[in-house]
Every structure is written in structure tokens, then in C-alpha cells.
Amino acid sequence: MRPYKQLTGVIASLITTAAPFAVILLCSSVHAQSTASIEGQVNDQHGAIVPGVEITAVSRDYGIRRAAVTDGDGRYQIVALPVGSYRIELRAPGFQTQIIESSTLEVGRRVTHNFQLQVGDVSQMLTVQTDRDLIDRSTMAVGHVVDQRMVQETPLNGRYFLDLGLRVAGSVTPPQGAFSASPSRGLGSLAINTGGNREETVNYMVNGITLNNLSFSSISFQLPINTIQEFKLDNSTFSAQYGQSSGAIVNIATRSGANEFHGELFEFFRNDVLDARNFFEFTSKQPAPFKRNQFGGNLGGPIIKKKVFFFSSYEGLRQRQGLNLNSVVLSDAQRASVTDPVVAKLVGLIPRANLVDSSGTPRFISSASAPVNVDQWTTDISYNLSERTSLHGYHAIQRAETREPNRTGSTIPGFGHTSRALRQIFTLNLTHTFATNVVNEARAGFNRFSSRSTPNAQLNPADFGILNGVNQPIGLPQINVAGGGLNFGGPAAQPSGRNDTTFVVADTMSWLYGPHSLKIGGEYRQFLTNNFRQGTGSFNFATVAAFLAGTANSFSVTLGNQTSHIAQGALGFFVQDNYKPRPDLTLELGLRYEWNMTPSERDDRFIVFDPSTASLVRVGTDLDAVYRENNKNFQPRVGVAWTPFRNGKTVLRGAYGIYVDQPMTSIVSPTSGNPPLAIPLTFTGTVRLDNAINVARPAGLAPQTVDHDFDNAYMQSWNLNAQHEFSEFALMVGYIGSKGTNLITRRNLNQVVNGVRPYPALSLSSPILPGTPLGNITQVEGTGNSSYNALWVTATRRLTNNVQVDASYTWSKSLDYNSFSSGGIVAQNSYDLVGSRGLSDFDARHRLAVSAIYGLPFRGNQLVEGWQFAAIVQLQSGNPVNIVTTNSTVNGVAGTLRPDVSSPINIVGRVDAWFDTSVFAPVTRFGNLGRNVVIGPTFNNTDFSITKTTKFGDALRLQFRTEFFDIFNRANLGQPGNTVGSPSFGRITNTRFPTGESGSSRQIQFALRLLF
Q1: Can you give the pTM of this predicted structure?
Q2: What is the pLDDT of residue 825?
């Protein structure tokens, strides 16, 4: 029986067997891991324990009422509480009633409230005014909560909530060459780098359900900011209840309706008339065209008071933008010198120069149109079935259409791609209180992603005389000249598309038993992805002269339609004990087990290379599985939190844990493009546009494969930190460290050794294409590693005297072999991966991030009241630059061979010469320069807003906001050209992010919000 059918049968059996049990569990408040809890101990004024105290928490927004009773040791806990403000009341015979009027519970927090009761009549009341608890006394996780006020009222360029994660200690602004972490126009970033981890190691959870797409393990989409209550980022030593990802957990709690109707109408507006010109717009004194309208509204309230609530929202985006293009082009003399007939036709696609730079290189400076249309809808329903049982459902959907003229590296107008996508998530959460010390949480949901991308220039290569094996109008091959100085055609791997669906069912039981606060639970995830791809291939030309002569130094293409239908499951269980041997000491002991099931393909389309027999073999026919089962993932988590002083204002904490990544399906999906289903070809050496396929076919078969002994990546994480709460703010100082093992790496199994490939051809016994000559063989394997060491300092000031501040400083160093699991081959020598160990691409030695809100204290009339300032400041060291050459004959992979360096590298720091290029020399062997030894420009950005809120009665407010992004108009420079000998080598030609994104140039945005 095929593995896919076996898995389907197992799932069906599990559902059938578990259904009755699930029904019982689901007769069970809200948000699962996206909730909060209260715990503590009750004593009398002499320190004696007080059992049998009734403790009641009542939501000030929803009317939810939850109760607990202290046990024989005076301990209590109330778990699975929706985030928000609560009134807490303690009653016991012979003691005065004690009341906390307002206690704010934040997402993912375990708040400790210890009480001391006074002898007296229960009718006597002692009321305490309190608010948010700023330090964590009962958890091993290191993280930070971004509350609703920061989410809704700080200036966010694009209104992307995930950008707020960048100001948490350990997070960094992504490098220019990032994959999912680079901002995508109108959609924001789909990943972050935090805690020294790769961008795909973060699990984004909405009400306890993952929003990751497991093709690349990035967030499927960013939820509308007006539907988020708050979120918490745990990026070191999080608890055993969390799995799937090794690096961090982003816990998102969505907004629900309350007992009163509340709503909002809004529009955020930008226009280039108000903007500054980008630093690299040389041909005009005016900024590139940019118009952006973000509009919508929301409404929430009771359907049945104190029983059923709703919250619905809509948000639309219409953006019209001209993107900066700065490309090497051809001089008139070069254009006239072309004799190759294919190149002569291609020259007609290349615009004429409108600028000659200081080195005499002709350039074309322009902009390209990049429209974005996005529509998003959300619906949230909360239902208090009883005091013991609550139900919560949430659904969000996004439709997006984007045109990207340069996302895949194109430097001239007319190319790039257009994408259309539909994304959604559904969550359902139920919690039932069986007893005052036993609570069960159950959750189920799914997230879906569907997209299709097509080239903007759907040209037929055959019409130009290009013989790349493609003779239909799907696009030209990607043509890369002089290290990317001129890049057009393609995209190389399109048209393409995929449909992803992730199903999740999970359950967690919480039980307070004496000094033990136990959690036991499990989760099952099933991921299904259907992929298709054609592709037009790519040519690499070392220099402009080589392009004019029509002589490329490498060519690659995959012929045929690459489709796949992949299923991948994961099953996890955990047990966690927060053990309090005494009130001032918590030991967190946890163990998690995860079985990351080997992916299967419905039609047995996985074809892999077997090194032991030099054969191509088919999974399901010649091989049982594409790689071995990763079913031995035992992950201990241990931590301690000690409050050494009686005032409870200081906490010392330490923790260690092992965390495992669920592998992405993108590591196996390329194997469906191997023969006989498709023909992947590469050729290294002199090749022409008009004979590429004829040259590559006899010697260039280039299969993609996966190591049969592939191990999923895992991370060891540890920290020591101290927190202290002052009267108005809390300070944390800590050492954070981690070590990554079995990280995803790609290498060339068929790299030339002494002029000979280890596998010159498939063996004569190969069941597929026996005797066929072989080129590069790209293998995905778990052989990378990383290390991270850092000092984190955070300061948090609660809203006091109209001031709220969050600040963090990070001093860190991150090392690895390669930094992106979704990229290609990075190592210059595939037989010496250790030789590529160096600074991570996202390494930033220093980073300071500050967010602040200040409400002006003026009172008296509508003119002076309601003013507020807010700012987000980011200061960050530069990211590393990897210097390479265009030589592809040494290792078979263009853009990976490093040069020799003859003397220390001098950083000049100018746009036209960031570093001294004279010390680098290309060589016909492995260069002596290390990976990522040059540091690029810093990132310094300040966003600022001024808000005026005018009240009309008690229920209506009109808010006008002016936001200044990159208020000081500092050009945050991109990385210098990294290819030795190219016209752009050592020169900076763009900002880190395109115009309109963070730090590109000053932009002004107006907003009008009507709140009722």
C-alpha cells in the first residue's frame, strides 16, 4: 500500500476512534494558548495557610465569571481566561472580603497573585486598586506582550502587526536578501528573525491554531490590525505545551465583542505629494508615484448580553506605486557592436541609459508600476454556554492581487510577476471546568492558502531564437548579467502556484494538585499541499561583454510540468508541571514528544537520487519513503523562577530546553520535477542562448534530491535573567544562548573533484534513465548548525501619567553555515561545509528599539484635550555581506565561489565605494576569503505620530492622526554589490527596502477614525 494511502487510512481510523472522546472533551473559556491564567496562595495575617477560600474572577468586558477554591495548602489557579481586565474577589468565613478592582491579564501570561486575608466579618471589604503585573514569577519563557494600545496606537508603516515583533529583545530588522522576512508590498513581512533563529522557526498561533503555511513555515498572512487584541512573542525557552517550531512562539489573541456595542470606521491615506524623494531617485526631484488608501470598519457587541458576543471587521487596501529601478544597461556603442542575432533581439527589451555613474557605467534609473489590491474580512463569535463552559470561534479571509516588477531580481521595467492569492484561517475553542482545580481546553481549526503567480512578460523564447527547451509564451528565461547589475526575463520558476491546507485538533487538561500545576495535552496537525510549476530557466553571464558576445557561463532549466500532491502529518504530546515547593520558588518541568511524519505524495511523484547505487529511484515503487521517520523527538524543558525578596519585586530565572522544527514540504516538492516526470538540467561552462538545450541535455541532468537519513532540525536554548519591578516600570537583564543542530542545508553532491565528477552518469542499473550523464545534484540534508549568544535588556513602563514605554537593547553574535532554509546552495565547497561557517546573514551586533506613547496632560476644552504623541525608534548595526565571484566552473554553482583577499578590508563607507575593492582577486580555485566577513550599512529609523481625539458626548470619538515614517528622512542603504568584477561591486544602488517600506524615505500618512 502506498504511504499516502496508509496515512489517509491512519487519519480516518484516528478520527473514527477519537470522535466520541473528542465530543466529550469539546463539551467544555476561550482562546486556548492565547489565554491567560491566575495562580497563587492565600495566607492570613500571621502567614498561616487558608484553605477553602472562594476566589472569583469576573471579566469587566464580557461578564465571564470563573471561580476557584483554595486547596489544603491554600493554593488556587484559574486558567484559560480570555485576555482583558478582571475584578477578583476573595471570600472566606471569618475573614474580610478582599477585592482587586482591576487586574489586567495578558495573552500567554501566568499571573501570580498571592493574598493575605485579614480577620473580620465577610461583609467587611478591603479593596485594592491594581493593574498589569509587569514581571513573570511562574514561567521559564522569555518573551514580551504587545498590548492592544501599542498595537492600535503606535505608527506602523503599512499597519502590519508583525512589525511590532521587531522591537522585542532578540529580534532584528531583516537583511535585504531575506526570503519571507523581507516586506512584500501591501502584505508586509511573512516572517521575522528573532533570538538568533532562522525565519522559518517561528510558530504563529491565532487562538491556539497555527497560521503557518508548512511549505515554507512562514505566516500565511498578517491579520488585520483592528482584529488583534494583543499578542505575545516568546523567543527563548518556551514551555512544553508549545511545539512545531524551535525558535519562537507568536501568540495572537483576537478581539471579541463585549457587553456594549463598539465600532469604528477608518481610512489611512498616503500620497507622494507629501513624501520625500528616495535617495537613489537621480533623474527627478520628485518622489516616485505612490498612492495608498487603507480603509474599513469594525463592529462588536452583544447578541445576548453576558452570553453571546460578536466582532466583525472589514479592511481594504488600494495601493498604486512606482518602484525605483537602478540597472546597468548598454551604451550606444555596445548596442551597436552586437552581432549575435539572439542578443540583438534581446537588446530591444533593454532601455537606453539615462545616467552615467561616476565609474563611467551606463545606467537606467526609473520606476516600475506595482499595484496592490487587498480585501480582508473577519468574524469573531464568543458564547458563554454556562459558568463552566464557553465557546469561541474566529474566521478571517484575505484576497490579494499584487504585481511585483522586481521581486525576483529584475532591474528593468516590463518583467517580474503578478500573484493572486486567497488566504484564510478558522479557529474553534471550547473550555470546560470539571472542578475548581480541573479545566479542559479543546481546539480545532484550519488555515488555507491558495495562490498563482504568472510572469508579467509572457513571451515565447523561441521567438527570440533562444533554445532553452521552452517553446510556448510563458516567459523568457531569467538572464542575469554581471552579478545582477542587469537582470531581466523570467521569473525562472514561473508560472507556478500551490494550494495549502493545515488542519489542527488539540486538547489540554490543566489540573492543580497540591504544589503541582499540571498540564497534559496533545496536538495533531495534517498538512496538505498541491503544487504546480513550469519554469523558463536561467542564464548567467559573467560580464556585460560576455552578454554582448552571447556566451553565458551557466544555464539551468527544468522541462515539463512539475506537480505534486503532498501530505504531511505531525503528532505531539506533552506533560508540564509548574511545581511550587514554596511560594517564592517555581520549578517548571516539562517533556514534549513529537512525531514529524515523513511526507508522502498521492501519485508517487517523489523521485530521488540514491548515492549508493548512483540511481534515480521512485518512492512508492523502488523506495518506501522519501526520507526516514523523524519519530524520536523527545524534548525536555526545565526552568526555575525564584523571588528572593519578600516584596516580590525581583525575580531570578533560568531555563533550558530542546525544541524541534517540523520540516517544510518545500524540501521534498522539487523531487517531483525529476525524470521521468520532468527533466532538470544544468550546464556549467561556455553555453550560448541559441544552443543551450542541445549542450545541456547530453551532460546536464541535474536532479534535486533529499538525504534519505534526513533529520529534522532542533534547537537547544538556554538563558539566565533577572527581572525587577520598580514603581512604574520593570527592567529585565539576561544572557540568552542557543545552538542549532541538523539545520537544513543544500549542497552539490556532484561537485567536481580534480576535474572529475563523483557521479559522471547514472548507473546502468538505474531504473530511471540508466547511463544518462549527470551534472549538479542538489541534495537537501540536515547537516547545518548555528550558535547564538546575546545580552538582552528590556524596560517596560505601564501606562502611568499618560506615558507608556517599551524598550529593548540586544548585544548579540549569531553564527551558522547558511542562514536560509529556503535558499539554494551557499557553500563554495560542498565537501567542506565547516568552511562556510561565519556570521549569519541576519546577524546584527547591536540593536536598540524603543516604542513610546505620551498623552498630553492638558485639560479644559476640546481644543487642548485629547492630544497624543507616539514613536517607534530602531537603531541597528549592519548585516554581513558575502563576497563572491561569477566563476561557476570550480564548483558548478554560480555566485558561490569566494575570492582571495590580499590584505585587510578597508570599509570606506561611501555609496559609490562601501569598501576598498582592490584587495579582492577572483581565482580558479576555492578562495581564502571567509563567508560574511564584510559588514554593510546600519539601519536607523524613526516613525512618529501625532493624534488628536475629539469626544462628542460619552459614546462618540473622532480621531485624526498624522504619521511620519522615517521622519528624519534617513536613507537606510541596501547592501553593496557583492560580486567581484561586476560594475556594481562595492557600490550601493538602492535602499534596504523599496520606497514605501520601512526606512526607505520620509512618508506622511493621514488617518481619520470614527469610534463609537
Answers
A1: 0.90
A2: 93
